[in-house]
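Final paragraph of the annual report: two paired records, presented back to back.
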Amino acid sequence: MAKRMRLDKLLANMGFGTRSEIRRAVKLGRVTVDGAVVKDFGLQLDPEAAAVRFDEEEVIYRETIYVMLHKPQGVVSATEDTRDRTVIDLLDPEDRVLQPFPVGRLDKDTEGLLLLTNDGKLAHDLLSPKKHVPKLYEAIVHGDVDARDQEAFAAGVTLDDGYETMPAELVIGEKETKEDGVYSRITLTIHEGKFHQVKRMFEAVGKKVIYLRRNAMGPLQLDPELPLGSYRPLTEEELLQLQSVHKKADASED
């Protein structure tokens, strides 16, 4: 069965502009399909068979997809799950066609940046323990986070299973005192991705994470304009930045 995709989605995935920019261009007659001008940006077509041109430039369909998702709480970082809604369920059907998968995992109750792609090599480079790609988190912690915690994290803490973490950078923000104790807002940069790592690091120093959001992974930063639960294709600049990580990884293995 041939793959079907909306015209505006095809052009957005191929980097010809935002969805709104492309829709305006289609209405202005700047797009042709099989030699004919089309005005319907929702036109369903086979991207591998249709001859699409944008301002006379041939649109070359690619099999790869790179998506930035602002993951909400309540969904799991998996391609399928029998009990819970997955991050793939948040995608439009035409994006699921390319079978993207989440690069790494965010806990069900964790929000923030999640990259979805079908580029296995790039995903491997971003996740490989040997690459030490930094990940930046923002959290609210039940407990008075202080300089002693900063020193402990900078040295590496021992988790509940005996694993000693790599040095991490802890920055302490505002604090609020409530009836049940002090709550600290922090940011934390880690260079690995163990299971529930941020939560377990704070448990190791006697504190509890009650809210967690990932803001960055390597050079990729969460778009502040991207609503919770929404997603968009990576920009060309963002993709080039991620590919630079890939190139550095290849160079380090030479």
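The closing record of the year follows.
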Amino acid sequence: MSDIGRRRAARAAADDPAYTRRLADIREAAVRVFRAKGLRVASLNDVAEELGTSRASLYYYVGSKEELFRDVVSEAVTANIEAAEKVLAQPLPASRKLARLIELLMASFERHYPYLYVFVQEDFSKLGGDAETASEPWDATIREWNQRYFDLVKQVVSEGIAAGDLRTSLPAGVVANCVIGMMNSSHVWFRPNGLMDATELGEGMARMLLAGLEPATGD
């Protein structure tokens, strides 16, 4: 480990309030830069300029822009996956599970605003092609997260179709992509403290989507 790395680790381990505040400032600046430019284009120089400091000073707190990106989104994304796994394990009808997934994700977007939307923007701008062609290890991590969450939503939809709780002419995977796409697109229009909060929006979006998946009366 380098001297800078040792100092960074020591300060973090000591839970130094000044270190914690400065790291929070850096992460917030990074979020603004990543949202504006995207992860591939943005640099630590951009983050330093946003903060009004030098790039060299950032190395006492963070090693790379990828590390910053991981820090601001990984906890939220993995928490969403774990929450979805818990929903899947509950003894509920698939329609209720799907509604719960929508409600939880919308609430997470609000709770972690705008960090999760950084992840969504990177998802749209850089993912594509086979995992084997990923240019960075971080691409593979993002792909794994996306695949895990997609598989969970698809499983709920598949269960619902098999049980007759959900009705659709579309394959379960297409429905899962539609649900996730609808939720992720909220990065375009959702802002906290708007006319409706995330709970109201999540419940309304779930009702809207599930109305199109309800079995026809008399079937």
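The first helix runs from residue 3 to 14. This concludes the annual technical report; the extension proposal builds directly on these records.
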